[in-house]
Amino acid sequence: MTVSDTTTGPVPHGARSAAFFDLDKTVIAKSSALAFNKPFFAQGLLNRRSVLKGTYAQFLFQLSGADHDQMDRMRAHLTDMCTGWDVEQVKSIVGETLHDIVTPLVFAEAADLIASHKLCGRDVVIVSASGAEIVGPIARALGATHAMATQMVVEDGRYTGEVAFYCFADGKAAAIRELARREGYALEHCYAYSDSITDLPMLETVGHPSVVNPDRALRKEAAARDWPVLTFSRPVSLRDRIPAPSGAALATTTAVAVTALAAGALSYALLRRFVF
């Protein structure tokens, strides 16, 4: 099925609608939660063992993704790992390395689909379990209207290790419903896209779900429900489309770079299953 087959025309008169996109393996070709291993290692936030685990975990993620159990273990591990990290240091590293890390991860098909929805009069929302420091800039580069991501608790400028909001599974669906209530979206006229069975609640929330590069479980679910199945395979560079974040933007960002935290955490979860 082609991208154009999933956008059926303009928003019905008098209704507001949106298209909700998962990030990893839907909009970008890799795991954003593992992408920042090297710069965080260079700044002393991760050790060499964590980087090696992250490299292997990225490989496993490319092959099969992460299921509910693996993501739950990731969440539990990151609460221990991130405790005491300096927020401003994390923000600075993300700001300095964003261009090199993001380029060339974005699927051309995803960028085209986002543009198509905007032309049809829909808002575009990126919804991800990764941290807002990563999700937000990518969303802005793609012209998205909103971004929803995981946020961590911060006290005295450091991460406590507690999760303020985990944008995952049912959490994504709840966030979508809340945003729809606030923005006046008619969910029956909304669209959603994801690659993972963990996003089934998100897909069920809207009237027009589609799956992108689906894992085995989601492909089976899509076949049973007759949902469109899309294949995205052409990553493109966004270096010229992502503006360098200003100092003010970084200073006012309040979410935690869960991308970096999850790099070690998801690595631990996957390697515990496959190595230890």
Topology:
Elements: E1 18-22, H1 37-42, H2 48-64, H3 68-81, H4 87-102, E2 106-107, H5 108-119, E3 123-131, H6 132-141, E4 146-155, E5 158-165, H7 170-183, E6 191-194, H8 200-205, E7 208-212, H9 216-225, E8 229-230, E9 235-236, H10 247-252, H11 258-274
Parallel strand pairs: 1-3, 1-6, 3-4, 6-7, 7-8
Antiparallel strand pairs: 2-9, 4-5
Helix pairs in contact: 2-11, 3-11, 4-6
Keywords: Hydrolase, Magnesium, Membrane, Metal-binding, Transmembrane, Transmembrane helix
InterPro entries: HAD-like_SerB, HAD-like_sf, HAD_hydro_SerB1, HAD_sf
Family: Belongs to the HAD-like hydrolase superfamily. SerB family.
The total domain count is 2
User: What sequence of helices (H) and strands (E) makes up the elements?
Assistant: EHHHHEHEHEEHEHEHEEHH
Biggest sheet strand order reads 5-4-3-1-6-7-8
Radius of gyration: 18 Å
The whole-number mean of residue pLDDT values reads 78
CATH homologous superfamily identity of the largest domain:
HAD superfamily/HAD-like
What is the second-level CATH architecture of the largest domain? 3-Layer(aba) Sandwich
Oligomer: single chain
Question: Number of DSSP strands?
Answer: 9
- Helix segment tally: 11
Poorly predicted runs of 5 or more residues: 55-63, 242-276
CATH topology of the largest domain: Rossmann fold
Could you tell me how far the N terminus lies from the C terminus, measured between alpha carbons in angstroms?
Answer: 40 Å
Alpha-beta content class: alpha/beta
Helicity level, as a percent range? 40-55%
Largest beta-sheet characterization: 7 strands, mixed
Instruction: Please tell me what the overall shape is.
Output: globular
